[in-house]
Design goal:
Elements lengths: L5 H11 L7 H6 L7 E6 L2 E6 L2 H21 L10 H19 L6 H12 L7 H10 L8
Length: 145
């Protein structure tokens, strides 16, 4: 047994990260980027923190909307936790789908969400039928053998 205390790590993480990024997994997998993300190392792990309250609130709303819309598409039961692979598909595919819907050139999450709000009025009004196609078709990178 390694003696690693996961609860201590979570407590340390919570004390260091004031605004957790809802797209942390997508940023860590490098399928998207964000100019407001701050990377930090904690207990030999990489973590992502957001640097702006308003943008974080918009991103959290988009993340919730992606989850609500992707449950059926990814065959996830309502009260079940999201498996890692499906979370990556929702995050990466969702952001890339929004990028495609906006005909944008960059994959900066905060910029895409802000542009989407400017165009559609609210996160809830984003073109989720279009975005869900990207979520379903997104294939995460395969691990090296």
């Amino acid at each position: 047994m390694s003696g690693y205390d996961e609860e201590a790590y979570k407590a340390a993480r919570a004390s260091v990260i004031r605004l957790p990024c809802p797209f942390e997994r997508a940023l860590l997998s490098r399928c998207v980027e964000c100019r407001l993300a701050r990377r930090l190392l904690l207990a030999e792990r990489e973590a992502i923190s957001c640097t702006e309250d308003a943008a974080n609130a918009h991103c959290r709303a988009f993340h919730r909307a992606l989850h609500e819309n992707a449950r059926f598409a990814l065959h996830i039961e309502p009260d079940r936790p999201w498996p890692f692979g499906k979370e990556i598909r929702a995050q990466c595919g969702g952001v890339l789908g929004l990028k495609e819907a906006l005909e944008a050139t960059r994959t900066d999450v905060a910029d895409l969400v802000q542009t989407g709000i400017a165009r559609y009025g609210a996160v809830e009004d984003f073109p989720y039928s279009h975005i869900m196609r990207a979520v379903v078709h997104y294939e995460p990178r395969r691990r090296r053998a």
